[in-house]
């Protein structure tokens, strides 16, 4: 388990996700990064009120190299070391085909979902090598199974998974582990915002639940527990990816793109069949 470890969570702040790590750390320390300063400060206060670990918020845009340098430098100045990095910042664009996206939109998505992971890893690794720490990347089941109307997003998550494996090879000589987890449909504010934007939110929510063999969406806490395992107990695991998917990738399903049962025809309000 953690013991006075310095955990840097580069993420869209999710209190439930971070709290799961914080509760299992006797006196661990966490640095939280977020582009929304108000949300970041609120998360910092809530986590510190819950305890037992300490949370410190530092504003950062993961696409800005200077912001990442500042984040890493301030962490080391305050705590003297870094033991684990969780790259969790990301965006999911609207469901559209490649015809309806511009090169600039793809470029911006890539900067958040891939370049951000690269920058954080690059500047944290000199410190992780000293502590023989580890990196955990938030990938996605779409990196493995793909998804309709999501070619750009799938491309970015595929890049994250490939980078995870390649970094694991490079950093093994320093005893630094690099792993990832791939979530299926997870109950998050972003996911709920999308569900509520569809023509029939209740029906869409049930469709999301039905993708999993377990008949529900995963939780941020379950993703946090997966990261906790990778960070502290999976000491002989590197270059691996853990599916937090409820078995969504298993069994047969409706894959006929011409039917209403095909994902995402089943919930796209603008799709005409």
Automatic annotation (TrEMBL):
Keywords: Coiled coil, Oxidoreductase. It comes from the Eukaryota. Residues 18-49 form a coiled coil. One of its GO terms (molecular function) is oxidoreductase activity. The keyword Coiled coil applies. InterPro entries: NAD(P)-bd_dom_sf, Sc_DH/Rdtase_CS, SDR_fam. Belongs to the short-chain dehydrogenases/reductases (SDR) family. This is 17-beta-hydroxysteroid dehydrogenase 14.
